[in-house]
# Entry
Amino acid sequence: MEATSKTTAYLRPDGRKGIRNALVVVYLVECAHHVAREIAYPYRERGVQVIGFSGCYPNDYSQKLLQRLCTHANVGGALLVSLGCEGFDRDRLAEFIRASGRPQKTLVIQEAGGTPASIAEGRRWIDDALDEMARVPRVSMGFDELVVGTICGGSDAASGISANPAVGHCFDRLVERGATCIFEETGELIGCEQDMARRAARDELRQPLLDSVAKAARYYQTLGHGSFAPGNAEGGLTTQEEKSLGAYCKSGSSPISGIIKPGDVPTAGGLYLLDVVPDGEVRYGFPNINDSAEIAELIACGSHLILFTTGRGSVVGSAISPVIKICSNPETFARMEEDMDINAGRILSGQATIESVGDEIIARLGEVANGAPSKSEGLGHQEFVMTYKSFEPLGPSCFPA
Amino acid sequence: MESSDAHLQLIRLRPEDNVGILPKGVEPGETLLVENEPVSFPEALPLGHKIALRPISAREKIIKYGMPIGSTTRAIQSGEHVHLHNMQSDYINPQTRLSGDGSH
# Structure
């Protein structure tokens, strides 16, 4: 069964397929952000989007993530915008993108002659690059070629009983069809590790799953940042494990095929846990400073689409991959309908079931994969956030053989 | 399945769950259907709170999402509100959360 029609998906030289054909303008330090934004602005309705990294100091994580993002299946070309003196290894990134067969240019503001000259030069290149990108072959795409990530943000008492279980049902149906599904945020899975270990597709994956949650618990303890707040109890949640299960049920009930870290792209379908908590001693602060940073990591792992559940009403979208909003609360949906794709709150009034809303999410996912803008995408949301992190490579038991 | 405008049907996430969830806030005296039996509720409660679907013994597991979310601290009647006053975490005391060695 195909996820898209015959002429929808974009075939990339590496054989992967995208559902969008974005051109990313990438600032390599905050000092280049304004120039990047000005270059992209006239093309904002034509798939030209701004992403980047603010820090001046080089970092393996940011290098890896930008490599993955600039060669993401939804991306057709990349313009790198460097101030000139920052620490980011722009040549290595440029070479990685060129090797993927995509149009690429590096613009160094200090060499181009400052802001106006850089903006003009960048826009000239984009005109040509968009023409080249319009010739990318169009093909159909199967569910087994689709990568879908999920995240929750602005959760409320309804999230764990309507939107999150509905996404879990959707994930189960997608995994049955061979898709790759990714869930994340080990810090919100404290209390679920034994059940995750039980769901491990292979015996050797059990201990790494337990270890990933123990790492998150240690990390949050060092930060002095707990997860169970008084507001949770007012919303009817009694224990940490109950709160965690509310988020965990987005993962559905499929076996867990592997653990990945930001920038690792699964090579086979199945359900994967994205371990977003840095390895080693606590450095650089919070594992994720906001939802957009988590979405960027899900996309760096190949996600074509993001299923975002919200109760209180998040409005964010993302650069590169469309974000589909599943609203858990009928009152929030009524108030913010133009931001929400799916009204999972109908489960609460008995007008819909977890299964029927899960099937609605799959139908919406099909529409968006075929080119219809998601609500946040249509409203122009293209948030992008990336911070400093450090990771060690995955152990051999984390990936399917 | 019985359905009536006068009765509110609880959400049961999994068949094996022993608690159901309020799909909306309730006022004192409002009637809930608990396993198709009307139960009059004595106190106001907001959306998302848990209600026992059957009698639950002291120190029995509370099951939601088909998984244990803690244990009762005393016996609970069918239709009774289940929260901090009659159940607790099996996993971690909220005050000492994350203070263990991860081997719970």
